[in-house]
Amino acid sequence: MKYFSKYNFILFIATFLFLSGNIYGQAFLEGSWKGKYTYGIQNESGYPFEIFLRIDGRKITGRSYLVTPDKRKVEMDISGYLFQDLSFIIEETAIVKSPETSENTFFRKYQLRFKGDIWTKSLDGYWQEIMENDFDKTRKVGKVLLIKEKENKA
Description:
Strand order of the largest sheet: 1-2-3-4-5-6-7-8
Number of domains: 1
CATH class: Mainly Beta
Largest sheet: 8 strands, antiparallel, barrel
Number of helices: 1
Strand content: over 45%
CATH superfamily: Avidin-like
Order of helices and strands: HEEEEEEEE
Distance between the termini: 52 Å
Number of strands: 8
Radius of gyration: 19 Å
Low-confidence stretches: 19-25
Shape: elongated
CATH architecture: Beta Barrel
Structural class: alpha+beta
C-alpha cells in the first residue's frame, strides 16, 4: 500500500505543477509586448508593432499599436481567446481615434503563441487581413515577433 500512495503523491505534485504553470503563464501574458510585424511570410524586414494584453480567464482584450509602411501610426482595440497551450487568437475590433492615429484600411486577425525560458519571453506567429473571402489572392498576410517588455519594479 505504501508503494501505491507514493505514486499517487507524485501524480498529485505533477498535476499541481502543470496547473500552476498554466495559471502563471496566463498572468504572465498580461502587459506590453514590443517587436515587429512583416508584410508577407518570406519578408524579414518589418515595421514597429506593439500590443498590450489583459487576460480575464480565457478572454483577451487590449490594444495594438503599429506603424504602417507609409509611416502612419494605427491604434486598434483587440479581443480574442486564450487556449490552454498558451497560444491565442486575437482580432482588431475597432480603430481608436486620436490626433496621432490615421485611418486604417483593414482589420487583422493574429494567431500567436507564447515561447519562454528563463531569460526571454516572446510571442510569435502570423497575421492576416480579415475579409469575406479567406482565399482571396489579394489578402494581406505577414508574420509577428514580439518580446515581453520589462516591468518597472520601482
